[in-house]
Amino acid sequence: MVRTYIKRVHAAIESGEAEAAGAALTAAIPVIDRMADKGIMHKNTAARYKSRLNKRVKALA
């Protein structure tokens, strides 16, 4: 589930659509947080994913 949302953000970034990338990131962040809360991924890994995705989305704008 996490990979799907991350792939959606990457696809929007590669297409160059800043609004779509922002919307995909907004949808992905709660999913990443949920997986970290459940222990599926470490909290630092989740933070790293969110930080890197956010950095790439901001670079589009």
- Gyration radius from CA atoms, angstroms: 11 Å
Euclidean distance between termini CA atoms = 27 Å
Give the structural class. Answer: mainly alpha
- What's the main sheet like? none
- Helical content stands at over 70%
Number of helical stretches of at least 4 residues? 3
Low-confidence stretches: none
Order of helices and strands: HHH
Number of strands: 0
Shape: elongated
Task: State the domain count.
Answer: 1
| Nearest-integer average pLDDT | 96
Beta-strand content estimate: under 5%
Description of the structure:
The protein is built from three helices and no strands. It is mainly alpha-helical and 61 residues long. The chain starts with a helix and ends with a helix. It has one domain. The radius of gyration is 11 Å and the shape is elongated. Helix 1 packs parallel to helix 3 (43-60).
